[in-house]
Structure formats: C-alpha cells, structure tokens
Amino acid sequence: MVLSSPALGSADPQIRYVALGDSRAAGPYLDAGALLDGCSRSNLGYPAVVAQVLRPQSFTNVSCTGARTDHVTSVPQPTPTGPVPPQVEALAPDTTLVTLSIGGNDIGWSGLVSACYTSAPSVDANCRTDPAVASRMDAALGTLGAKVTATLGAIARRAPNARVLLVGHGGIFGARGCWPNIPTSDADAAFVSGFFTRMNRVLAGAAATSGAQFVDVTVGAEGHDACALPGNNFFEGRHSSSLARQLHPTESGMRHMARRVVDVLQRAG
C-alpha cells in the first residue's frame, strides 16, 4: 500500500485527530525538533504521517517518550522541560479519531528480554528455557490487559464519539539474532519475538473489550526487523545505524506503522 494524501487544501472537516502514547508514537531523535522537545516528539513519527495522509481538520499529538498508561489517564509525566499533563486532557467531545501506542513502559519490556542477551557472538543464553524469565514475562503480561483496558475506557469517556485505534508492539526481533545489534541466539530471538506476539494478543483483547480497533504493526514487517540491512530495517536494535533511538522504529518503520493505521481505517471505515 502506498501512502498518498488528498490535494492540498482539501482538509477533511469530519476528522479531528488526537495521537496519544509513548515513544513508539513520539519517534525520539528522528528529527531536530525531537531533540528539543521535552517528550522527544518528532514530526516523523507515525501520527504525523497519518495526519499527512488523512489531512484532518485538526491534529494534536501529545505522545511522549517514556509514557505509561497512568501518564495517559491521570498522572502528569515528568520531562526534561517540565511535567506534561495527562494526555487524555487533549481529547474533546468532538474528537473523532484517536491513536494510542502504550504498554511497553508499563511492563518494562527491554528489561524482561535482556536475560536473552549474550556478551559474545555464537553464545546461547538459553533464556527460552529459563523458568524465571518465563515467570517474569507471564507476570508482566498478566497485569497489562487491565491497565490498557482502563486507559481505553478513559479515552472513551473524554472522546465518546471517537474511533480509537490501539497500535500494537513488536517488530524489533525476528527469527534470528545478529550480535551485537540483537545479541541473542537465533532460538532466543524467536522466543522474544513470540513474547511480543503474546503482548499483542493482550493488547488486541483490551481493544476488543473496549470497542477500540487493534492495529498489528508486525503485519508486513517480516524481514524488516533490527537484523535487516540498514535501509531495509523498520526497527533499530541495540546499536542504531540511523537517527532513530535504539530499539525503536526507524523513519521507514514509522511510515510502515502509518500504513498499517491507514489500512485499518480504510478497511473498517
């Protein structure tokens, strides 16, 4: 699917779009503006790309790097330039479209998968068979659904007429490791990829329970994980070869995520 937008000047008066979420939406380091913004919010993140395509009557992006579910719903988030209010305060009764990326910071996913990392190539941490790793992952995912469901409920109360899209996680890890960028064995890389599949099931379940729509960003991203060659990768690993932050979407990845959002909007529109 090729992203395209209507002719200039043809803003859609029916769309009032608000983007919420964490760094998967904010796009830290992708442009100079993100370096100066307290939330490291880039104009190259997927919300801005979606807005370029849809040309909404209004567009507000309050996504913020490091955000958790409570920063969306009720707790001001500290940033280097001062606290920012809970993100739902950007919503209004006339908001018609909301995208949300959230959950990764709630469960601390990078810490969960770090047990799979090795200090040298051709070493297998064998985290996939470690009961302690499995227990930590299970516990984290066990708490996530209720938090995301509550967040979606808060969004619905503030913007009762909005179509809400919950944008999923995953894509960084594929079927193989590539030390030191993804410093795992192939088997452990596949295990971590499976963890994100499970996380997406939790997110999809929360969306279904709340009347929101789930956007699976791993669809169409096969072969574009952090082990792909630079320029072909949608996500960076532990050593970024682009302006994107480590373990985050690249500019190409953000365009891919925007395509998935627009595709879901158009298919179920």
Automatic annotation (TrEMBL):
| Name by which UniProt lists this protein | SGNH/GDSL hydrolase family protein
Look up keyword Hydrolase and say if it applies. Answer: yes
Q: Which GO terms describe its molecular function?
A: hydrolase activity
- Which InterPro entries does this chain map to? SEST-like, SGNH_hydro, SGNH_hydro_sf
Q: Which residues form the SGNH hydrolase-type esterase domain?
A: 19-255
Enzyme class, top EC level, equals hydrolase
Could you list this entry's UniProt keywords, alphabetically sorted. Answer: Hydrolase
Keyword rRNA-binding attributed: no
User: What is the protein's species of origin?
Assistant: Rhodococcus artemisiae
